[in-house]
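Quick one before lunch.
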Amino acid sequence: MITGRTKILAVVGNPVKHSLSPLIHNYAYSLMGIDAVYIPIEAKEAYIDEVLSGLCFTLNLIGFNVTIPFKERVVRLMDLCSEEAQAIGAVNTVKRGEDKLIGYNTDWLGFRESLRINGIERVSFALLIGAGGASKAVAYALTKMGVERLFVTNRSPVNLQLFLERFSQFKPVAWEERDLLDVLPEVDLVINATSIGMDGVSFPPIRLEALRKDAVVYDLIYWETPLLKKAKELGLKAIDGLDMLILQALYAIEIWFGKMPEFSKVKEYILGWREKGGEA
Ligand code: NAP
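Model of the NAP complex:
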């Protein structure tokens, strides 16, 4: 039941209809005994500034998440940004302080922690596929983890160049199967941070057979993509983006409320919801 004291949180994006975030957050608040509600807000791209200023008039608003396609655009609307959000150039979590909007990025924390939860403490050589907002959070996490050799590939050379201006320690590889084949035998972690595979059919231009048997394939998409299916068929360790999604939400909750619920309980709830036919 919503009362005059219920705290308000939201996710702003487009589309947000299929977002799992309301499910994750509302369950997490109930687990923690917090009187709060998390609502999806689909914003038209041209009106994002107005939507955010309107949202800030909401009584009891604690903060909100920002998702595709606004994470990079909202940086300039913040009064303050965390060091990490500035380095990544994207904000996914906003806290309303006294007369101030403070921007954070919890995607990189979610990615880093998801590796740990999946038993990956050390990475020496990583290949990142994609150069968008999520790729930058992953790149920041890999850099913080001290990964020795970092490669990146992207369909659009212009966006790849923008990525490299921020993360110059990455070496670019052309978006061609034969060029990528040269680096694959050395890689111990491949990360797909593009939307390739969302349709259940498309596949990035990499030949997984060229990877070492102990290599890990990570796809930021939250379900089994063709890339992950193939990785499993080849006996490679395959990780999807669900753990990262849940963890970035839990880190946002920590920013807003100073504590977070147990990851395993939230994951169990989401998997149960999926088993019952829930789709996102
Ligand atoms: P974004 O900023 O829009 O970037 C999209 C990336 O995908 C770009 O590198 C883009 O390449 C590439 N791309 C899109 N369609 C493509 C195609 N048909 N062929 C080749 N490349 C294509 O989006 P984002 O925020 O980085 O999100 C990327 C993915 O990560 C999405 O699937 C999103 O759901 C997922 N994600 C997951 C989490 C999580 O917590 N698990 C968090 C954030 C994002 P160009 O530069 O060539 O356009």
